[in-house]
Write a structure and sequence with these properties.
This protein is an all-alpha fold. The chain has a domain of about 55 residues. Helices cover about 35% and strands about 0% of the residues. It contains three helices and no strands. Helix 1 packs antiparallel against helix 2 and helix 2 runs antiparallel to helix 3. The radius of gyration is 39 Å and the shape is rod-shaped.
């Protein structure tokens, strides 16, 4: 189906093809999208222009700042093994931790009654 594009579109398209910088190309692509009539004959052309626009935006977007750093505690994956611990939530940590010492009682083992404050 014919697109029936206006002459202004072809002028902007010519400037787009002559443009060298990414910012100029972005500007002309947006202008071409604005000039283009909206009907079913221009659907594929519109999709192509939007694809080009997205590619140029990705190309023009440069990341500034520090790059991504790897943590010091990173352990690389090796082999094909997998470990699964099954049981209650506390059971998984019990075999790996040292046994806890038993608390010693702070009370004497035999209780003696206190001395009476009055004579018997």
């Amino acid at each position: 189906m014919p697109a029936n594009l206006p002459p202004q579109y072809f002028e902007v398209e010519k400037r787009y093809r002559e443009a060298r910088s990414v910012s100029e190309k972005l500007k002309y692509l947006e202008e071409m999208l604005a000039i283009m009539p909206k009907h079913k004959g221009t659907d594929k052309l519109k999709a192509d222009l939007r694809r080009r626009l997205a590619q140029l935006k990705d190309l023009g977007a440069t990341r500034k700042g520090p790059g991504r750093r790897t943590p010091l505690y990173l352990v690389e994956r090796e082999g094909v093994g997998q470990v699964a611990l099954i049981g209650p939530p506390i059971a998984a940590s019990l075999p790996f931790s040292p046994p806890l010492p038993r608390p010693s009682p702070s009370l004497p083992t035999t209780l003696t009654p206190p001395a009476a404050p009055w004579p018997a």
